[in-house]
Amino acid sequence: MIQEVIRSRRSVRTFDGNPLSQVHAQLLTEHLGKTENPFGVPVEIRLLDAKENGLTSPVIVGAKQYLAGKVRREGDYELAFGYAFEEICLYAKELGIGTVMLAASLNRSVFESVMQVGPDEVLPCASPVGYPAEKMSFRESVMRKGIRADQRMAFERMFFLGDFEHPLSEQAAGVFAEALAMMRLAPSAANRQPWRAVVSENRVDFYVYHSMSESRLGDIQKVDLGIGLCHFDLVMQAQGLPGRFVRRLPGIPAEEKLEYMISFEVRR
Ligand SMILES: Cc1cc2nc3c(=O)[nH]c(=O)nc-3n(C[C@H](O)[C@H](O)[C@H](O)COP(=O)(O)O)c2cc1C
Asked: Which residue among 71, 79, 100, 106 is best mutated to probe the pocket of ligand 1, counting the most ligand atoms within 8 A of its Cβ?
């Protein structure tokens, strides 16, 4: 069940030093060929050998391979990238493979050159893939404590009913309760959890709460939103409640740090 995969996922930075089994490498590669996202911007993700390509990360121990992805800067490319990359990471988790998205902790120029990132493209992040080591490195456990990686903001602080004045409890979130609860567990850069949403009847309006500045790589918090939307969408589908993403300015007063991105409508 997808909810189980989401609940048991955590970022993995310490691996056991083995490469992926041939079967897993093949399954992952086949899955990469099928990456889709609902935002209409294609995302290319490849499985790469670390040593052969000189790929390294100062926070990763024992990984022999990496996933790296790139996308053209057009439309909702950050959402598309976050969604597609997370979908693969959840699939990997189902196979027992660990991942962690890395936007900052990687030798970026090498990744970009291996992926032949063009001037109109961006490589928002990459991830090691491998089998989690039994024990986390000291560095990883210190890092996790530092960013409170095991904690999430309260449901009521992220999600609202009708407007931003009325916090929404999980119990009151109706058909969206489970999917929003699973969005809340998603990974995000520096664990900032920028997902915000306003629920009204059969629609959810999604916003990003900006607490980091944009860089030449685009807006990493929009990538976070794409990751959260992947969790949300997969859980809605799994519950037999598919919907579609539409852009429809909700006209709800919102503080400056909140940017409306997209809405989800349940199909009736
Ligand atoms: C877009 C994105 C970029 C990230 N970049 C880094 C990074 O550069 N280095 C790192 O150690 N972790 C990175 N992370 C991992 C987060 O720190 C992690 O997801 C968060 O602390 C929550 O922990 P969890 O994934 O174990 O739930 C990134 C995560 C996301 C989603």
From this structure: 100
- Minimal-distance CA residue to ligand 1 atom 31: 188
| Domain ranges across the chain | 2-139, 155-266
pLDDT at 64: 98
- Ligand 1 atom 17 nearest Cα: 190
Cα angle for residues 166, 172, 173 (degrees, 5° grid):
90
Cβ atoms of 35 and 87 within 8 Å: the answer is yes
pLDDT bucket at 80, cuts 50 / 70 / 90: very high
For residues 114 and 14, give the distance between their C-alpha atoms in angstroms, rounded to a whole number. 24
Atom of ligand 1 nearest to the CA of 185: 27
H/E run at residue 31: helix 22-32
Binding pocket residue ranges, ligand 1, CB within 6 Å: 10-11, 59, 100-105, 125, 147, 149, 187-191, 220, 223-224, 227
Residue 8 has pLDDT above 90, yes or no: yes
Q: For the domain made up of 2-139, give the CATH fold.
A: NADH Oxidase (3.40.109)
What pLDDT, on a 0 to 100 scale, did the predictor assign at position 180?
A: 98
CB atoms within 10 A of CB 114: 19
Q: Is 163 left (phi over 0), alpha (psi -120 to 50) or beta?
A: beta
What's the pLDDT score for residue 159? 98
Atom of ligand 1 nearest to the CA of 105: 8
Taking domain 155-266, whether its CATH number is 2.60.120.280 is answered by no
Q: Which atom of ligand 1 is nearest to the CA of 148?
A: 21
